[in-house]
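Board notes (copied after class):
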Amino acid sequence: MKAFRAIFVVGAISVASFAEASVLGPGGASCVTWSQDRQRNEAHSQLNQAWVLGFVTGYIVYKPPQRLSPRPMDSRSMMLWIDNYCDANQEKDIADAAKALIEELTGGAR
């Protein structure tokens, strides 16, 4: 029985690690990192922004929403939206912010 529990625990940890590893690149960084990078205007900020734009583009290309927001956003507006999201949700990560942005752009139609 102890061996079964040990295998179960190791399996659960492996699954949790795999789920966390499913976000590749800067998307796994925290919203705190996003905000700090944006304030410093470092190359990391540009990389983070490119990741968000690629994530949103990938979603729209591979899963076209039924409708987009009546007020489409340009990339600068999207980055300001992410800034506001991350300021209000510091415990989240960049991928969470990008997913929330997609919700905003599609009106929740996923």
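Comment from the instructor: The two ends are 43 Å apart (CA to CA). Residues 2 and 86 are 43 Å apart (CA to CA).
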